[in-house]
Amino acid sequence: SQQGEEDPQALSIQEGENATMNCSYKTSINNLQWYRQNSGRGLVHLILIRSNEREKHSGRLRVTLDTSKKSSSLLITASRAADTASYFCAVRVVGTYKYIFGTGTRLKVLA
Amino acid sequence: ETGVTQTPRHLVMGMTNKKSLKCEQHLGHNAMYWYKQSAKKPLELMFVYNFKEQTENNSVPSRFSPECPNSSHLFLHLHTLQPEDSALYLCASSPSGGGDYNEQFFGPGTRLTVL
To answer: Is A98 close to B33, i.e. CB distance below 8 A?
Structure first.
């Protein structure tokens, strides 16, 4: 299977704490993206990191990419209750128009 | 609002029905995608269209038939579906299918139930 895998599957933290979720994949990629989904609704794009980049920041988000290990991590700092959602990584397979999504991490931030 | 709309938002159909899902994007993008999201499974890419041409068909059964008449509209025609086809169907668009900076913008989805 080419699907990505994320861990943990579920994460529960207190407001103000940091949340880290990890993604592993199996194929060669052009880029890796992170998305958020609230309760069975559409996904919202958070951040994109290219295969030749190692780290990227956007507001409270920090993404790292290690192509040698085929893995990425998403760090959300100073979490808020509004960050409660499912988070998915997606990789764009090199040489194709195909995206493969991970299994997702369900994050719950307790107020 | 992401600029991608989907209709209907909810659909219940019998196995012998024929129905269509519609997606429209107002972002001036050239690539459009259909995804299937089933409970406890990863999002599955079904089809990709780039400049109205189908560039990916992820081994989708023929009871799902996509149509892309122009870069702004995408349809998914459904016929003789099975109960296991019940899922959330998501449409997305991106500036183009290729390139390194192509984030996807998703619609809210159509919740399909097949009886």
So the answer is: no
Is the pLDDT assigned to residue B104 strictly greater than 70?
yes
Confidence at residue B38, expressed as pLDDT on a 0 to 100 scale: 93
Q: Do A4 and B42 touch (CB under 8 A)?
A: yes
Cβ proximity of B115 and B83 under 8 Å? yes
Distance CA B79, CA A90 (A): 30
pLDDT at B75: 98
Q: Are A111 and B111 in contact (CB under 8 A)?
A: no
Residue A11 contacts by C-beta under 8 Å, 6 or more apart in sequence? Answer: A19, A21, A105, A106, A107, A108
Residue B69: asked if its preceding bond is cis (omega within 30°), the reply is no
**Pick from B72, B103, B108, B70: nearest CA to B89:** B108
pLDDT, tens only, B11-30: 999 988 899 999 999 999 99
Residue-wise pLDDT tens digits, A64-101: 999 999 999 999 999 999 999 999 999 998 888 889 99
Q: Which A-chain residues 29-88 have CB contacts (< 8 A) with chain B?
A: 30-31, 33, 35, 40-45, 48, 50, 88
DSSP-derived secondary structure letter, A39: T
Of B2, B4, B42, the CB nearest to A101: B42
Q: A99, B104: Cβ pair inside 8 Å?
A: yes
